[in-house]
Amino acid sequence: MDLFLSFIANTGYLLADYRHLIMIVIGCIFVYLGVAKKYEPLLLVPIGFGILVGNVPFFKGFGIGIYEDNSVLHYLYFGVTTGLYPSIVFLGLGAMTDFGSLLARPVLMLLGAAAQMGIFFTLLSALALGFLPEEAASIAIIGGADGPTSIFLTAKLAPHLIGPIAIAAYSYMALIPVIQPPIMRLLTTREERRIRMPELREVSKREKLIFPVVGVLLCCFLAPTALPLLGMLFFGNFLKECGVTDRLAHTARTAIIDTATILLGLTVGCSTQGDVFLTAKSVGIFILGSIAFSIATASGIIFAKIMNLFLKVRINPLLGAAGVSAVPGSAREVHLMGQHADPTNYLLMDAMACNSSGVIGSAICAGILWSFMLV
After folding, report:
1. Range list of H helices, 55-132
2. 220-234 per-position pLDDT tens digit
3. pLDDT interval class at 178 (50, 70, 90)
4. Residues 6+ apart with CB under 8 A from 192
5. Per-residue pLDDT averaged across 243-266, rounded?
6. For position 253, what pLDDT does the model report?
7. Helices 72-81 + 84-96 axis angle, to 10
8. Do residues 220 and 227 touch, judged by C-beta distance below 8 A?
9. What is the pTM of this model?
10. Residues 323/115, Cβ–Cβ less than 8 Å
11. Helix axes 133-140, 147-157, angle to 10 degrees
């Protein structure tokens, strides 16, 4: 009987407290949104299931939990804490991306830069609220709406905040259809949403081949600490465009990025143990993250409207909302919003140009913030 009672005492049913139950409910919500609502299922399903796995209570000291040395989850989590998984994701992302629309209309790069304003506004806000500089920089990068970049920078500056920052970043990426449309409607008129973009020019193979070489040199000379992200992004794109490494490019954009995404999502979810995750800082991070993402969306739209004051051919201000790094969710939402105003208006390719420049911009911002923290 003593052995039986000891066994019962060490089961999750008796070890659980309210924090585990709260996180299990959140994990179920993530899985529901991914499966039933199809909100970024490739992200929310692994993260949501990881939250369930990470919040099964266990007896400490058996090497089970993600924060216990020599546990399987701890070793898998190594790819998050070192920035390995985000770099691999960027490799696959580069092999998927066609920069042709960006090269056809380079002025749209400015919108990708303008949308990063949310990062620096949130940095100042987090500092004002009492977060340490390293923590504030990690929270601020959520404004770029780039999960891998947020995880990479946080792993370098504030590894104890990886869980809440990663969950916040991916949550807002998945909720783009909920967050961005009201902001776009508020800041644009129906007439502006109906603006048609001129047809893109044909981009040569040579231009596409030269761009990743020039891009990695220009961007990484500016922010060398962004090399693990941008180096992999442009390398993946070069594999795609050079024409002689099709097998490598195919593997990078399928098996490799899928494997990294599975492990990244699962282990980030597992890191949200209720007794570690549910703190006042986590709540503050979620609030600041939502503000950062909203400001990033708004600043891109406002900057596009300012550009129209000087351009002979006006651009659709909705494109500014695609300047965040949430590929391809924000570009798709911009396109749908434009078609809602005019079913014959096609904005997807221009929106993807802004989106891809946002990926580069957020990685550069992460490198700059990391450089400042090293000074």
Report:
1. 72-81, 84-96, 100-104, 109-114, 117-128
2. 999 999 999 999 999
3. confident
4. 305, 316, 317, 318
5. 95
6. 95
7. 60
8. yes
9. 0.91
10. yes
11. 170
